[in-house]
Write a structure and sequence with these properties.
flat; about 0% strand; Coa4-like; 5 helices; CHCH domain-containing protein; mainly alpha
Length: about 80
């Protein structure tokens, strides 16, 4: 009789670490613009040219302003 694979294994410590948000992720989530940031970085990853991602950049900038991050971080956009 064959043995069925064990599909209920506990993830390895390395796997658990990858799934947990790192400091960068926590900072992005705290801005309230994580979705816009993801779209922007995905665009750049796909196109390798920031100039091709102007719509995504503008969406991120608008979110940044709307969420009050300029005051919170002392940044200007």
């Amino acid at each position: 009789m064959g043995r069925t694979p064990d599909t209920h294994k506990t993830p390895s410590r390395e796997q658990q670490d990858v799934d947990e948000p790192d400091e960068w992720d926590k900072r992005i989530f705290s801005t309230g613009c994580a979705e816009e940031n993801a779209k922007l970085t995905d665009c750049y990853f796909d196109k390798k040219d920031w100039r091709a991602c102007t719509a995504e950049m503008e969406s991120f900038r608008q979110c940044w302003r709307r969420k009050g991050n300029e005051e919170r971080t002392g940044s200007r956009s």
